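USER: Write out one fold?

ASSISTANT:
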Amino acid sequence: AVYGFIGPNGAGKTTTMRILTTLLLPSSGEASVAGYSVDRERAAVRRSVGFMPDFFGVYEAMCCWEYLDFFAASYNIPPSRRPKLIDDLLALVDLTHKRDADVMSLSRGMKQRLSLARTMLHDPALLILDEPASGLDPRARVELRELLKELRSMGKTIMISSHILTELAEMCTHIGIIERGRLLASGDVTTIMQSIQPHRTFVVHLLSDPAAAEESLQGLPHVLQVRRQPALIPPQIEIDVDGDDQAVGAILTRLIQGGAVVTHFAGQVNDLEDIFMRITEGSAYGGTS
């Protein structure tokens, strides 16, 4: 699973992540990771978590394999296991060809992937990544996104914060929305969307009169509202529906029977930005926190 952690500046995203990784003790309340208290069982939490902060930091005087070997030793991984583990992780993050290269010679995107390999040395159950795409060029963003998808397919649980909501939408199975230190919503994307908008909206493109199409739907069960968009090319209507797929089929049938020339009929896709703006009631958004 990939859990997208979303919130405006100062909402508490980074603070929450630091608490979950035992870098900051909570001033009140309880927090746990994999069943371990972040206050009373800090060593167990650290064994369960791999953390990449927004300022990921690497030791540039080392070469790539030395950098990973240093952290493998700090995790008490036996020397006999380290060479294969390091080679496997370098292959996973597509840095095998940079194995002996100095870290300072790497691009920012490569340093980011090397730092991600470091978080996985001890095979943690949870990866916590704070703004991992920050400062990356478009190609590096794509490479990072594909790597995170691969980690998800390997069964890793990933908690990721980002101010680029379109990128999170392509990766996340679940989201949490935080504002002013309060978690406003948390769960899978579909369930949250249904909770804030229980009906579905369908967009219809027409080659006929949208007013006539709207008239044909009057009184039809499960049609909550019809909105005309005559200024658009082609003309469109939007239909709010609270029924199942059978009800949707009846709507399309009624349109055609009423003489509408339909060229497109599809459900409106609500993205993470829509969800965020609805839940936070349009508060300003952006940046890290």
